[in-house]
Amino acid sequence: MVKVHLEIAAGKGLKCPCGHMAFQFEVQGNRSIRGLPMGNKKVDFCVPVYRINDCPACGRSLRAVLPFVDRYARHTRALDRSVVEMRREMSIKAVAALFGLDWRTVKDIEKKYLGRKFRRIRLKNVKIIGVDEIHVGKQGYKTIVRDLESGAVLFVGQGKGEDALRSFTRRLSSSRAKIKVVAMDMSKAYIKWVRSAPPMKEAKIVFDHFHLIKLMNDKLNKLRQKTMKELDEDMKKDLKYKRKLFLRNEEDLSKEDSQELDRIKNIFEDLSIAHAMKENLRAVYRNALTQTDAQLLLEDWVKAARDSGIACLKTMAKTIEEHTKGILAYWEFNKLTNAGMEGFNNKIRWLIRQAYGFHDQAYFDLKIHDLPTCTIDKQL
Description:
Elements: E1 2-5, E2 14-15, E3 21-22, E4 25-38, E5 41-52, E6 62-63, H1 77-87, H2 92-99, H3 103-117, E7 128-135, E8 141-147, E9 153-158, H4 166-175, E10 181-184, H5 188-196, E11 204-207, H6 209-229, H7 233-236, H8 243-247, H9 255-267, H10 269-287, H11 291-308, H12 311-322, H13 324-332, H14 339-355, H15 361-370
Parallel strand pairs: 1-5, 7-10, 10-11
Antiparallel strand pairs: 2-3, 4-5, 5-6, 7-8, 8-9
Helix pairs in contact: 1-3, 2-3, 3-15, 6-10, 9-10, 10-11, 11-12
């Protein structure tokens, strides 16, 4: 441990918290301030506590502000900057060990830095946003809004649906932003939010194709489960643990998996039809070049789904008809997708795993805001 004693030279003034320079002050004890280490030696600065009496500007008696440390802090600004820089490459525990600090101090330093960084998020020029929710364990759901052009996180809300977005709506209104496009899933709550929020009155909805295919996969899997329940124990073996065969993209199956899927489809006609319809729906996104092409292909798909007589396909056809405008907007806006939100949600899950969960909600929200600048091969 290296101790360095510092004092203010005679005739020098000190700044009052109000910003005015004062030359009349008294010493009230000493304080220890942790600085940057020298090699493997910890460095503490022993600094007198200076109190300004009757500041000529504000008239108050307050503790003086030191130029190299934040008010009431027990570590220098230089150490704060180093901690923030090291946190980009190292875990909280490792940074705490490197600088001889408590892990809570490291967290608080980073939290303060991130709080300043994301204190004001400009919304005025935002035109295209993506909205999605993610379940984060015991904390429930988080609703994330991102700028799909820059990738920046604009808002992190607790919960899901319209209620979670109220404060963001107020911020949009005060910023006078004019949102042109909102990419999202087919949640009724999000549709209601876009239709009712004043900043969204001219916004067009784009239903992300990722969620449409995911919804189709859910229908297909429920059909597999329903079919399996109607079979005896011996026949169930053909469908048990075969979920991935049906849900994985056809081109991604290995030769063995493809052969096994064909064998199962030859046995169960409804599953064979439903799987073919899923692949046909995927083909719409691959083959349609324009909005008109997509509309014709979707109309054919809806007719074929209804003619199949399979309940889950008829339900899916109804869903597509009710949301056709938002589905076709994918082509209207140059194949705009919200798929990046799913990748971002995976980053959030990685963040939670690395930290073994977060107890400080404000810190967690700030870390989510900072994720676009973070790479997941770095330690939390």
